[in-house]
Amino acid sequence: MSGTTETGGQTFSPPEVIAAGANVGPEVYEEAAADRLAFWAKQAGRLSWDRQWDEVLDWSNPPFAKWFVGGKLNVAYNCVDRHVEAGHGDQVAYHWEGEPGDTRTITYAQLKDEVSQAANALTELGVNAGDRVAIYMPMIPETVISMLACARIGAVHMVVFGGFSADALASRLDDAGAVLVITADGGYRRGAASALKPAVDDAVSRSPGVRNVVVVKRTGEDVEWAEGRDLWWDDVVGRQSTEHTCEFFDAEHPLYIMYTSGTTAKPKGILHTSGGYLTQVSFTHWASFDLKPDTDVFWTAADVGWVTGHSYIVYGPLSNRATSVMYEGTPETPHRGRWWEIVQKYGVTILYTAPTVIRTFMKWGEDVPAGFDLSTLRVLGSVGEPINPEAWLWYHRHIGGGRCPIVDTWWQTETGGHMINPLPGVTSLVPGSAQVPFPGISAKVVDDEGNELSDDSTGLLVLTEPWPSMLRTIWGDDDRYVDTYWSRFGKNVYFAGDGAKKDADGNIWLLGRVDDVMNVSGHRISTTEVESSLVGHPTVAEAAVVGASDPTTGQGIVAFVILRGDAVDSGDELVQTLKTHVAKDIGPIAKPRQIMVVQELPKTRSGKIMRRLLRDIAENRELGDVTTLTDSSVMNLIKEKLPAAPSED
Ligand code: WT7
To answer: How far apart are CA 28 and CA 579, in angstroms?
Structure first.
């Protein structure tokens, strides 16, 4: 603990034990500033390349970047084989823990064998380099093995979070043009088996391009079977050779597509490629968390179905030869101390999670973690939304025992890896701020015209130089890529979609999205996506959706709907029906917290819904300026209809 900020908050200087032996020291910032491209080239040199690149960055056609031009590598080889070849085959890659309590320990040598078998199976099934493979899985080792098998043969994986609906899966299969789906019968969540195969059957029936479905047996529950199309993983992978000679691919060869919500109803397929992506996720994982491969036990408590899992459960940790924990289930199963029991059992030293989970733990009380030995922890991470100082301090004290730096990492699906965060052995921490751009990253806060703002003013966050793990395009839609990210301030400035403030000490404070994207428990959901689902229901004529601040999930989804003339307002029953409809349409994470049936929606004269006013209502605030409304009595009509309190389900 070392002082206070200008605003009076406490700051925390790097603990002596971490600063003394840290992977990177303060000089890293100067080094990167002196020659950004040389700095990233040095980090690329931490990987194993089959052919050295000719040029670090080709930015001759912005915003289409090429990093490590002419270089060749194999991402899976870098994550697995090279560690085995260097004599670390017996090191544990994953301590996997199933929700029911079953466990698997997978060494790097075993991982190499299983990835090779899966790669051979994909090839036997006719999957070629460049083909897209969908992965719709629970959190089990085969999920990681599938991703690495794709990378190994140059196929592009497209992981769809297992909580997404059949419709969401179908639209992604179609957009990506997937030829194969890897799934499981189901997984365990909240103490029960939760099926996955029915959604795949439904989605694949609408996706003629999918030739095969490979099914991992996890729960053992009965599944429907399409002869000729469906194959058990154990059969098709199990009989393959554990030998597989990998090919090397261009640094810009596509690695994966990850869909994320934008401001329209159609999700964007964010494309990441190989050399630059692996360079940045590997280096950020090593530097941001001070990862020591020989002694640390690293745990990203997130789902592989999101970018956090891709970069910091799979590619970052494996490329650094980390020993990781991977947990299948939910934090309260079978009891609220499950995470802390896992930390104690495996001696976790670095834990990376999201503010929404921390706030849930706060609600459950500090007595729960106090019942476990958390003394192995040395670094804590946070991601997904701003971490409020209260949650930061609780995490620091009750999980980190007051001794662990908290690394708050700002980044996005699009950025691939960490972009703004403190370094645990270097930075004096300011709770609530993500602080400073990572070395080699250029982030600024600008006004609406793109002028850089003086300290202490609020504006928009932009990234002003290309970075190695940046998205390369939106799959199949270069125009949308340019329009969404590179048109507001020209083709050299990336518009992140976040509001931000830089304080007098140069620390960046993230202030949430400035577009129509909500952040619910660290997951991005667009208001338009939920609105279009609601109007897809036969009873709904019009819908407006806002993200209202929520003490646990950051934002909660609140919907206002106008019913069709012939629809019967059955009160709670209708509201439940609509909630279930959205959950089925998009996935349970998109289920509105609250739905209000109204007669009118507040609109401007040009017909734009005034979400600001709806947010005021949803957050129980005095209404702001209503003078631009076509009809100001509308707001009174809406307020009269308000239910007393938001329902919890
Ligand atoms: C959006 C990106 C990065 C992986 C998880 C979410 C918000 C993310 C932080 C943070 C403040 C954050 C931003 C960003 N966000 N991390 N540390 N502090 N805000 O990835 O779904 O692509 O969402 O999440 O609003 O734009 P994503």
So the answer is: 50
What's the token pair of residue 179? 């030829």
* Pocket-testing residue among 164, 272, 412, ligand 1, by greatest number of atoms within 8 A of Cβ: 412
Pocket test for ligand 1, best of 524, 529, 549, 589 (most atoms within 8 A of CB): 524
Q: How far is CA 427 from the centre of its chain?
A: 25
Question: What is the Å distance from ligand 1's center to 411 Cα?
Answer: 5
Outline which parts of the chain fall under CATH 3.40.50.12780.
72-330
CB 356 within 8 A of CB 385: yes
For domain 72-330, which architecture applies? 3-Layer(aba) Sandwich (3.40)
Distance CA 344, CA 311 (A): 25
What's the whole-number mean pLDDT along residues 126-144?
A: 98
Structural fold of domain 521-641: GMP Synthetase; Chain A, domain 3 (3.30.300)
- For ligand 1, atom 7, the nearest C-alpha belongs to 385
Q: Whose CA is nearest to atom 19 of ligand 1?
A: 385
Q: How many Å lie between the centroid of ligand 1 and the Cα of residue 438?
A: 15
Q: Compute the distance from residue 201 Cα to the ligand 1 centre, in Å.
A: 32
Ligand 1: centre distance to CA 4 (Å): 26
Whole-angstrom distance, CA of residue 520 vs CA of residue 524: 7
Ordered alpha helix ranges (H), 12-107: 16-20, 27-34, 36-44, 75-76, 82-83
Residues with CB under 6 A from ligand 1: 260, 307-308, 383-386, 408-413, 434, 496-498, 510, 513, 519, 522, 524
246: left (phi over 0), alpha (psi -120 to 50) or beta: beta
Task: Tell me the C-alpha to C-alpha distance, in Å, between residue 295 and each of 283, 291, 348, 349, 544.
Answer: 18, 9, 10, 9, 51
The tokens describing 585, both together, are 């349409």
Which tokens is 5 given? 């900020």
Question: CATH classification of 1-30+333-432 is 2.60.40.420, yes or no?
Answer: no
pTM: 0.90
pLDDT > 90 in the chain, percent: 82
Torsion, Cα 44 46 49 52, to 10 degrees, reads 50
Whose C-alpha lies nearest to ligand 1, atom 23? 412
CA of 210 to the centre of ligand 1 (A): 32
Which tens digits make up the pLDDT trace of 331-389? 999 999 999 999 999 999 999 999 989 999 999 999 999 999 999 999 999 999 999 99
Q: b or e along 148-167 (b: 16 or more beta carbons within 10 Å of the residue's beta carbon)?
A: bbbbbbbbbbbbbbbbbbbb
Residue range(s) in the chain whose domain bears CATH number 3.30.300.30? 521-641
Q: Packing angle between helix 36-44 and helix 27-34, nearest 10 degrees? A: 110
Q: Which atom of ligand 1 is nearest to the CA of 496?
A: 26
Rounded to whole angstroms, the Cα distance separating 438 from 269 reads 25
Task: End-to-end CA distance of the chain: give it in Å, rounded.
Answer: 40
Which residues make up the CATH 3.40.50.980 domain(s) of the chain?
1-30+333-432
* DSSP label at residue 220: -
Nearest CA to ligand 1 atom 3: 412
C-alpha to C-alpha distance for 454 and 601, rounded to whole angstroms: 39
List pLDDT tens digits, range 31-65: 999 999 999 999 999 999 999 999 999 999 999 99
Cα angle value 399/283/489 (rounded, 5°): 100
Residues 6+ apart with CB under 8 A from 554: 355, 356, 384, 385, 519, 520, 521, 522
